[in-house]
Every structure is written in C-alpha cells, then in structure tokens.
Amino acid sequence: MIPEIRIEDYNYGLDSARIAKYPLPERDASKLLHYKKGVVDQHIFRDLPDLLPENALMVFNDTRVVPARLHFQRATGAIIEVFCLEPVQPVEYNLSFAATESCSWKCVIGNAKKWKNDVLSLYNPENNGAVAALGLSAELESRDGQTGVVRLRWQDGSPFSRVLETAGCVPIPPYLDRESEAIDTERYQTLYAHIRGSVAAPTAGLHFTEKVLERIREKGIQTETVCLHVGAGTFLPVKSSLVSEHPMHREPFSISKALLQELANKSRPLVAVGTTSVRTLESLYYIGVNILETGESRDVDQWAPYEREYPYSTQEALQAIVDYLDRTGRQQLVAGTRIIIVPGFKWRLVDLLVTNFHQPESTLILLVSAFVNGDWRTIYDYALANGFRFLSYGDSSLLERA
Question: Which tens digit of pLDDT belongs to each residue from 320-364?
C-alpha cells in the first residue's frame, strides 16, 4: 500500500548561511557525522576507514558529470540557456557523446518564452577561438513548457563529448546561487568518475581522496562500482503536500554481472556511497522479481516496493538477474529506476550509508528517514547545532541502519 506521508513533516530550518557555496580546500577535511543505534558523534571524513566494518563491501557510483549547460543567443540578443538532460537521438548516451555532426537532447530551456523556433548561435562573448570553431547551433524540435527537445549541430567534426567540454558549463546545483567557476570543473566531480552521463554529481563521493580510498582497501574492504546517471530531477522539490502525488524521474543505471553474483551471495555488510548507489542497489530486488514472474527485465516503478508483499528472498531475486544475464549472453544489467524510498520501505541490501546533508522537504530526506527508522531529526538537529555545512559541497555522514 502506498504510504500517506505529508512532506511538511520532513521540513527543518536551513538558513542560507549553512549551505556550503564552495568546497573546502581539501576533500577529506570535511566533518563526518556518525550515527549508530540512535547515538550521534562526529569525526573528520579522513577517519571514515576506522568506522567501517573490516569485512565490508563498499559500492560507489562512478558516473561522470558532463558540462551540460550551453548558452545560445538569438538575433535579437536574447540569451537562451539549454541544459541537456538526456539524449533523444541517438538515445544511448555513448552513441550521443560519440556523434560528430548532430544529436538531439531533452533539455530544460532557460528564457524559453523568448525562443521563437529560430536557429540559435552559440553565445561566445569572449570570442574564444576554440568555441567559435565548433560552429555550434541549436534548433527547437518540440517544446513542453520549460523543457523541449533540442537539435544541436556543429561543424568541426568533434565528438559531442568534446563539444560539451569546450563550450559547456558545469551544472552546479541552483541552490548554490552562483555561476559555475573554474574550481567546479574539478571539485564537482568524484575522483573515480568514469562513465559520462550525469547532470548532477553523486555528492557523497566528493569527499573521497586517493589516500582515504587506499586506507579503505588496506583494511580489507572490497570496493566496487555501479553507474547511475543522476538526472536534473534530483533538484526538483516535492511540490505536492502528499508525497504520494510526487512523480519521480527515471534514472538509467548499470551494474556488472560479477557484482550481482557477489550481492546474491552476500555475507558481509554492504556500504553504499551516496543515495544514488542506494537507489541502484535497492532497485535490483524488484528487477529480479519481474524476471522471476515474467522472464523479462524492466524498469522499476516508483511505488513497486509498496504495492504488495513479495514472496521471494533477496538471494532468489538477485540470482534471477544473474541467470537472466547468462541466458541472454550479457555481462551487465542495464535498466532504469523511478524508485522512491520513504518511511515504510523494506530494506533488502544496504546496511551502511555515506551521504551528505539534504534539502528540507526533499525525497532524499525521506530516504534518510527510512534508513534510520524515522530518527532523521536526531541527525539533523545535531548537524545544525554543531556547525555542519549542508548540501552538495557540505559535510558528510555515515549512517548505520538499525
């Protein structure tokens, strides 16, 4: 049954001064709140390896943020921002990034009312030669309010990934209330970012340094990766008073067959780095259920965890995915999820969570509450009272599930 949850019950006072506008000089120097069995204390993030179970399996999201914000100019002088969300043609990320002449993307369009379906030229106020050489233009193929499908064309034969690197801006979160700067190119990216596709960083991973990762491995903790491309929907507030009326956005993810087999044979604590890793891992059970019941893999619906009781064990569901990949000759599962994790969620896999401090009345606060059995205010009251920095560039926490 879909839970009846009022989003106003997940509000807290967050003054703008508490939002970290910039990262600290050192990634691993941020504060680290530790929550275990209702008790909260604090450390420095570089102490994280000392707090993790020695035999743990730790999963990171290795998606890479793309500089997905482009600015164009009409003949009238009006500036139009095009924020690329997901590819439409070609529909696969890797094919779209490899395109050398044109591609279409679903975009959020800033100043959309002023775009009258004319072809726009790239805005280049500094007359940057490399930017000018692209010959990049934008044409509106369809629109739906503030979003639309935009056809992008360029002339120099570069792959679209290079076009974005040359002309695009890092899509830092709107709540930072500033334009992206040179520091964001490096710091709004995890050290282990690998597969291009996100328009927002999996920010729990921003604290990790090579030294912290090395100490984690020296402790005997196994580290693995999944890839979930973070969409702009991660910034969307819950506008309806009832969470049941909030639509979750789809996010694509992939996970290797080898890791799925490891999870199916789970015999160690599982640590998820970030809510995106959590959403990937906890979605797997429902994909496995669908394979058991229909023989096919399909995306995870938003309310699948709450619609009925499921008779299958986690091991059965995960093994079903492994068998499906064997049967279809694949080495990784590629799927999508709209899963929403709220109080009442039945946890199947994740035991510990590394995460930052999230916006009031957000789906991520709901996820944290579900993870700590409703005790989220203990965590946030402590953080507010002890000078923690909030949101993407803020401090971190290690939460242990009851």
Answer: 999 999 999 999 999 999 999 999 999 999 999 999 999 999 999
Per-residue CA distances from 382 to 33, 277, 354, 358, 386 (Å): 9, 25, 17, 14, 6
If asked whether residues 285 and 386 sit together in one domain, one would say: yes
Confidence of residue 235 (pLDDT cuts 50, 70, 90): low
pLDDT value at 238 more than 90 = no
Q: Average pLDDT of 17-46?
A: 97
pLDDT at residue 288, as a whole number: 98
Structural domain contains residue 383? yes
Instruction: For residues 362 and 217, give the distance between their C-alpha atoms in angstroms, rounded to a whole number.
Output: 33
pLDDT at 341: 97
- Do 234 and 348 lie in a common domain? yes
Structural domain including 360 reads 7-65+189-400
- Please tell me whether residues 238 and 218 are part of one structural domain: yes
pTM over cut 0.90: yes
Whether the per-residue pLDDT at 233 is higher than 80: the answer is no
Residue 239 has pLDDT above 90, yes or no: no
- 3-state SS string for the chain: CCCCCEHHHHCCCCCHHHECCCCCCCHHHCEEEEEECCEEEEEEHHHHHHHCCCCCEEEEECEEECCCEEEEECCCCCEEEEEEEEEEECCCHHHHHHCCCEEEEEEEEECHHHCCCCCEEECCCCCCHHHHHHCCEEEEEEEECCEEEEEEECCCCCCHHHHHHHHCECCCCHHHCCCCCHHHHHHCCCCCCCEEEECCCCHHHHHCCHHHHHHHHHCCCEEEEEEECCCHHHHCCCCCCEHHHCCCCCEEEEEEHHHHHHHHCCCCCEEEECHHHHHHHHHHHHHHHHHHHHCCCCCECCCHHHCCCCCCCHHHHHHHHHHHHHHHCCCEEEEEECCCCCCCCCCCCCCEEEEECCCCCCHHHHHHHHHCCCCHHHHHHHHHHCCCCECCCCCEEEEECC
In a domain, 145, yes or no: yes
Work out the pLDDT band at 255, boundaries 50, 70, 90: very high
